[in-house]
Each structure stands twice: as C-alpha cells, then as structure tokens.
Write a structure and sequence with these properties.
Helix content: over 70%
Strand content: under 5%
Number of strands: 0
Oligomer: single chain
Number of domains: 1
Shape: globular
Largest sheet: none
Number of helices: 6
Order of helices and strands: HHHHHH
Length: 142
C-alpha cells in the first residue's frame, strides 16, 4: 500500500511538473507574440500562467500540504513580487533589466496583475484538486 501511495504522489508530482513546464513555454510564446492571440490574451495570459507556475512550484516542493495552504502561499508570493515593483531602486532595476529578472520580477505595479494571479492560482488549485480526486492516496494526502 505504501508503494501505491508513493507512486500516486510521484505521478501527481510528474504531472504537475509537466504542466508547469507547459505554462512556461506557453507564457514565453505569448510574450514573444509568436501565437496569434487577441490583444486581451497577450496582455493578461502571461500573468495568469506565471501565477499557475508559482502554484505548481509550491505544489512540487510541498506535495503533502493541502491545496488551500499551497494556494495561499502562492498568492502571497505573487502579491509580494507584484508589490515589490513599487520599489524602483537602481540595483533592483538592474536585475529587472535582465531577461530572467524581468520575467521573474516584472517592471511596474498593475492592479490587473493581482486579479490575473488570483485566476492563475484558482486554475492551479482546481487542477490540483482534480489530480487528488483522480489519484487518491487513501487519505494520506489531504
């Protein structure tokens, strides 16, 4: 039985990792404007995917935590990073000027980003709940 639980956890983690990788690739494709999407999606979809990625990373790191705990932690991280954009010091702007720094930290605070983060994390939480339902572990994982 322990082997079955371990396999379900590992499989769930693998699916979460694959979905996080897909979110990264899709987000980069949208940012590069290599997909033909409506301007609405080009503006907001990358922020939704970024929040989904943060949720996925939190889930991979702490798979035994309840979905609600992971969602709140991911939301806190996303909101903290967004609020950090209110600070425009030289050193952090130098980090943001790099490609990776810009993708991770963003450039300017936008209220709409906070809403996108809620949507992305809600999608991540729904995805996790579906995985937990489809891959039950006999009560070991909440």
């Amino acid at each position: 039985m322990a082997l079955m639980i371990s396999n379900a956890c590992a499989f769930r983690r693998s699916i979460t990792f694959a979905s996080a990788l897909f979110a990264v690739l899709l987000g980069l494709a949208v940012r590069a404007k290599s997909l033909f999407l409506a301007p609405f999606f080009v503006s907001y979809l990358p922020d939704v995917l970024w929040a989904f990625l943060i949720f996925s990373i939190a889930l991979i790191v702490s798979p035994r935590q309840p979905t609600k705990t992971i969602a709140l932690a991911a939301l806190g991280i996303c909101f903290l990073v967004e609020c950090s954009q209110l600070y425009q010091g030289d050193w952090i702007n130098a980090v943001r000027a790099t490609r990776v720094g810009g993708l991770l930290l963003g450039f300017s605070f936008l209220w709409s980003d906070l809403f996108c983060y809620v949507i992305g994390i809600a999608c991540g939480a729904a995805f996790d709940r579906a995985l937990r339902f489809l891959l039950p572990t006999k009560g070991v994982l909440p």
